[in-house]
Specification:
Chain B: Pfam families: At5g52880_ARM (PF24104), F-box-like (PF12937). The complex is a heterodimer of chains A (about 350) and B (about 280). Chain A has about 350 residues and is mainly alpha-helical. Chain A contains 15 helices and three strands. The longest helix of chain A is centred in the last third of the chain and has 25 residues. In chain B, strands 2-1-3 form a three-stranded antiparallel β-sheet. The longest helix of chain B is centred in the first third of the chain and has 25 residues. Chain B contains 16 helices and three strands. Chain B is mainly alpha-helical and about 280 residues long. Chain B has a domain of about 80 residues: Monooxygenase (Up-down Bundle). Classes of the chains: A mainly alpha (about 350), B mainly alpha (about 280). At the A-B interface, helix 6, helix 7 and helix 8 of A face helix 7, helix 8, helix 9 and helix 11 of B.
Chain lengths: ~350, ~280
């Protein structure tokens, strides 16, 4: 054939040409090429394997697993509408909003299928729709809608929520310990030693559980499963107990009631926080100026002293006081409790 | 004599119109039909009723009544526990503030809604097996969520929990909420979720986000914020990355009524004190 003939024939062939697609269940169907080529994955297959691919039943393009026939026809409907160049943005938007109205199950399947065919606009559309379904619902409601199993343990659920609550005492402690940790790291860097991070994490929990008013033995070991379980349990209890401001106040009341120094404690914290909020906008977690640092150090000592005295009063001689080594060189000591 | 009466009544009607106009600009009614905003709108209605129903001009009282009715009528469509508790709160406000006739009408509407709700939840007994979504799709879906929905999602199941720990999600949330206030030093292995959590606590975000309201300086109005931005496109273009000034519910009520009532205490002890809240005296 001459080139001219080829030139005439080819476009005609293109316009009428079909592609054969095969889904994982074995069914093969014929689809107009230009519609199918709207899907990047199909397009790549055709280009990679040459024009022979998909040209007949025998060498049909096999589609990824997540594309079942029902989804395929949905997706092709979508492609059929959008591949027409002459449509306005508004038209497309209206079509999409109608198109996306389906039950959750089909939406999930659609998102999966579109993703495996790399059809990004449809992935976005279905993902947004699913996000709108999820929005504002409790975990239980979400599980019901999506028929998902409740396979998380209690503490895993609470992980991200822990400390996302507005309890100033926890905030204070976390900040102080974050500061300590940073100081530690810097000192260790100078000395060239390794820091044992776990030490610090544990002491936060211990302190929290002391505030909680829980009696428990804290032994200075580092690697036992029992320890981890206990830690998680206490974290649990802590977060349950500290779930609201009111309850948080009660806890402090419990431990410091004998002192009658609750108001002092609270006002001290308020001072710190008003100081913090007064600082400039470019405020970063631990970028505190030395004056503030000193204030905090003093406050930490104060706080520790109060805790110690309250514990001595409330629990007799069962415990040794909390040790905060502020200017010391080395790890912040953990709380040790020795039962007599 | 007649003209003098007219003169006296004119400023009154103008004042009435002012309040009514403000209320309409708040677009509470529109928010009620929006799945996401329904609880926020109900809470705002409750606050308005609690804080000053008796002082409202007649027209505005009628609007509030109408919106309460539609809130109850729309409740079955919402079908989330957040919506139900918001509606419950609204009913309490209605019970304590509305005059007898209106109160009874509203309560009837509410009871019908509850019945309709019960009917709907009963019809959900099918046990279908949904295909499990692949992780990267989950992450993509989560990228469209606000922080509370993301946290809810993290408690749903193991695979969802894993998807929510993706750093990019928390990074964009951090950018959205705090980038204009905080500069951050990033290092490899930086935990964006931790960073977000810390700033969230520091800036008392949970309190500020409770109302769903923000003030847009570009259109000079109180709006329902869309992910901390003004819903109007022109304002979004003008403001760039900067989020709205978030507002507390009582500030919105103050704007509506022209009052300057307190305060922080009322917000933190919200639910408990609501019924006992004494109406502030207007000067």
């Amino acid at each position: 054939m001459s080139e001219a003939d080829m030139a005439i024939i080819k476009p005609e062939m293109m316009m009428k040409s079909y592609i054969w697609l095969e889904t994982t269940d074995g069914s093969i169907q014929q689809v107009e090429q230009e519609i199918a080529m709207y899907c990047p994955m199909i397009c790549h297959e055709v280009l990679q394997k040459g024009l022979g691919a998909g040209s007949s039943k025998n060498c049909a393009i096999s589609l990824p697993q997540r594309v079942n026939p029902a989804m395929l026809s949905l997706i092709l409907d979508y492609c059929r509408f959008h591949q027409v160049p002459g449509r306005s943005n508004k038209e497309r938007k209206v079509h999409d909003e109608k198109f996306i109205r389906m039950d959750t199950k089909r939406l999930c399947e659609l998102a999966s299928a579109a993703d495996s065919l790399q059809l990004k606009p449809l992935v976005d559309l279905s993902s947004r729709a699913l996000a709108r379904i999820i929005e504002g619902k409790t975990p239980e409601e979400i599980r019901e809608i999506f028929h998902l199993p409740d396979d998380l343990t209690e503490e895993e659920k609470l992980e991200p929520l822990k400390n996302l609550m507005d309890d100033p005492r926890i905030r204070l402690l976390n900040r102080l310990y974050a500061k300590k940790r940073k100081e530690l790291k810097e000192r260790e860097k100078l000395k060239g030693k390794e820091v044992e991070e776990r030490v610090d994490e544990r002491s936060v929990d211990d302190l929290l559980s002391f505030i909680n008013g829980k009696d428990h033995k804290v032994v200075k070991t580092s690697k036992s499963k029992k320890k981890n379980k206990k830690r998680k349990e206490h974290k649990n209890k802590v977060s349950h107990n500290l779930h609201s401001k009111q309850q948080g106040v009660q806890i402090v009341d419990e431990t410091a009631s004998s002192l009658g120094g609750v108001s002092n404690l609270l006002s001290m914290e308020e001072d710190i926080f008003s100081l913090k909020t007064d600082s400039e906008d470019g405020y970063v977690d631990d970028g505190m100026d030395p004056v503030l640092k000193e204030m905090l150090d003093r406050e930490v000592e104060d706080f520790a002293r109060r805790l110690n005295s309250s514990w001595v009063l409330s629990s007799g001689q069962e415990r040794q006081p909390v040790h905060f080594s502020i200017n010391g060189n080395g790890a912040t000591r953990r709380l040790t409790a020795i039962d007599d | 004599m007649k003209t003098r009466i007219d003169d006296q009544s004119k400023p009154q009607t103008m004042i009435q119109e002012k309040y009514t106009k403000r209320y309409q600009n708040l677009k509470v009614a529109e928010a009620l039909s929006n799945n996401h905003l329904y609880p926020f709108a109900c809470n705002e209605l409750s606050s308005i009723i609690d804080l000053g129903y008796s002082q409202l001009p007649k027209d505005l009282k009628a609007f509030i009544f109408r919106d309460c009715l539609s809130a109850f009528r729309l409740l079955p469509d919402m079908n989330t526990s957040a919506a139900v508790s918001a509606a419950n709160l609204l009913v309490k406000s209605v019970e304590s503030a509305f005059p007898k006739q209106k109160k009874n009408l509203a309560i009837v509407e509410f009871k019908q809604a509850k019945v309709a709700l019960k009917r709907r939840t009963k019809s959900h007994d099918e046990h279908i097996d949904l295909p499990s979504l692949p992780q990267d799709i989950l992450v993509h879906i989560f990228s469209f969520l606000d922080v509370y929905s993301l946290l809810s999602s993290s408690q749903v199941s193991r695979s969802w929990n894993q998807a929510t720990s993706e750093g990019s999600l928390w990074r964009s949330l951090f950018d959205l909420h705090f980038s204009h206030k905080v500069s951050i030093h990033i290092h490899p292995g930086f935990d964006w979720r931790e960073a977000f959590k810390n700033e969230y606590i520091l800036y008392k975000s949970s309190k500020m986000l409770r109302s769903g309201r923000g003030y847009c300086s570009y259109c000079d109005s109180v709006v329902w914020h869309d992910n901390l931005r003004c819903p109007k496109k022109q304002c979004r273009l003008k403001s760039g990355k900067k989020p709205l000034d978030l507002m507390l519910t009582h500030q919105v009520v103050n704007y509506l009524l022209g009052t300057t009532s307190s305060s922080d205490e009322s917000d933190s002890e919200d639910e408990a004190v609501r019924g006992l809240w004494a109406y502030p005296t207007l000067q």
